[in-house]
Amino acid sequence: MRYALAALWLLAAPLHAEVRYASFASPSLGRDVAYAVDLPPSYADAARTFPVVYALHGLFESHAFWERRGLAEMLAGMRGRGELSEFLVVAVDGGNSFFLNGPEGRYEDLVVRDLPAHVEATYRVARGRGARALLGVSMGGYAALRIALKEPGLFAAVAAHSAMLLTQPPAREDGAGRWHMDAFHGAFGDPIDAALWSAADPLQLAQMADAKTAPALAFDCGAQDRFGLFAGNEALHRALDARGITHEFALPPGDHGYEYVRGVLPRSLRFLASRLGAD
Fold it and tell me: I want to staple 93 with a disulfide (CB 3.0 to 4.6 A). Which of 34, 42, 125, 222 is the partner?
């Protein structure tokens, strides 16, 4: 009875945009994983299905970032002004894993297999590539771009802000902070596994990307990013250009953080919304 009531609660239709929190059993991680789902106002229309934007958070964050950082409020404002077609946003807790299949667990499989399967079985959403998009910030931006290039058949469109793109593996002697290095070591091994790093590096994956199969791509980074991530983002832009892969790229003024993200999020949401349902 308790599980039946929980299922009814999840599927009950809100009268307005609403962010809900829940968890599900991830086969890839062998445990329950928390997530947030941002439901649009017209989710109450039982005759409709909706596309989904999967949102990946940055280091030292969780699935709660979508609401806590004011991004849900921004989306609600855009919905209210009629600037977007409607879709769900689902943010999952990836810890400091870089959403990677690595020492901390199979977090990429969480994103590309477990989470879509759960969402498509639990919510009234459309299925297939054309109904799925991926959005990432910082660590999540790195993961979103990696998945876009590694698994191009899964998402129709991918957008990233301030993606953690480095032209070489990080090291303390190069100025990486202790907390960041601890996170890198947790995800990539200590010392960093060079083969794992290379296999997961969007800059390396871009060298083999196919313009015929790549999803729609948009990414940006603040020109004053204090971690210097603009260099790696520029490198990815050049690599995609060399492969003839159409994409949108920008280096607007700004530092690393959510003040910057909130300034560029409307553009990426419009980009993703315009591509959903296009396949």
Answer: 34
Residue numbers of the domain that contains 130: 2-275
Please answer whether residues 114 and 130 qualify as being in contact, where contact means their C-beta atoms are separated by less than 8 angstroms.
no
CATH number at residue 9: 3.40.50.1820
- SS3 of the chain: CHHHHHHHHHHCCCCCCEEEEEEEEECCCCEEEEEEEEECHHHHCCCCCECEEEEECCCCCCCCHHHHCCHHHHHHHHHHCCCCCCCEEEEECCCCCCCCEECCEEHHHHHHHHHHHHHHHHCCECCCHHHEEEEEECHHHHHHHHHHHHCCCCCCEEEEECCCCCCCCCCHHHCCCHHHHHHHHHHHCCCCCHHHHHHHCHHHHHHHCCCCCCCEEEEECCCCCCCCHHHHHHHHHHHHHHCCCCCEEECCCCCCCHHHHHHHHHHHHHHHHHHCCCC
Number of domains within the chain: 1
The structure tokens 């060079």 sit at 194
Output the pLDDT for position 176. 66
What confidence score (pLDDT) does residue 105 get? Answer: 97
Q: Which of 180-184, 199-203, 239-243, 268-272 has the least mean pLDDT?
A: 180-184
Q: Dihedral sign, CA of 232, 238, 243, 249?
A: positive
